[in-house]
């Protein structure tokens, strides 16, 4: 964890006062570069209660900001990243499986009401539709260690959720059956 040089800075107090204004809920910061943006926002928002949504211009900027924020905060538990599902904006249709897992984990944490202090995203990620809380709950099959489940039932559930049967799993949305072993690559972990 790196000590934040902006904690206690007089300008931070001014920003916090401006953010507290009920009539003006959207604010823009200019003149900051590199990691200083994350440091100023971290110093400000740490003083305020509740979750904070930070929207950046693109995926790369959001990813760097997320990394800086986690470094300043010292723990990734309070900071969530919500990326777009796609590899690049010009290639809609070509999903990035790692991003799908990250999006699902973020949504799952929000549904479980284990909200974080910071949710970092970018505009492309926000325009994608997401599953409703109710549908996510209905579409989740949760198994516990030692629990016995019928293999045919599990196959039906996986096929219903559009999982693909493959020889060896290597990305989310796949499952394989080898004798008495069922391998599932979940979207959530």
Structure write-up:
- With 189 residues, the chain is of the alpha/beta class.
- Helix content is 38%, strand content 14%.
- The longest helix is centred in the middle third of the chain and has 15 residues, at 59-73.
Note the main attributes of this structure.
single chain, 189 residues, alpha/beta, three-stranded parallel sheet, three-stranded mixed sheet, 6 strands, 38% helix
Give the SSE layout:
Elements: H1 10-19, H2 36-45, E1 52-56, H3 59-73, E2 79-82, H4 97-111, E3 118-122, H5 123-127, H6 133-138, H7 151-160, E4 164-165, E5 174-178, E6 181-185
Parallel strand pairs: 1-3, 2-3, 4-5
Antiparallel strand pairs: 5-6
Helix pairs in contact: 1-2, 2-3
Q: Outline the biggest β-sheet.
A: 3 strands, parallel
DSSP E strands, number: 6
Stretches where pLDDT is under 50 for at least 5 consecutive residues are none
From N to C, what is the helix and strand string?
Answer: HHEHEHEHHHEEE
Number of helices: 7
Look at the structure and give the mean pLDDT: 80
Radius of gyration: 20 Å
Ends apart, CA distance between termini: 26 Å
Order of strands, widest sheet: 1-3-2
Percent of sequence in beta strands: 5-15%
Task: Briefly note the structural class of the backbone.
Answer: alpha/beta
**Portion of residues within helices:** 25-40%
* Outline: elongated
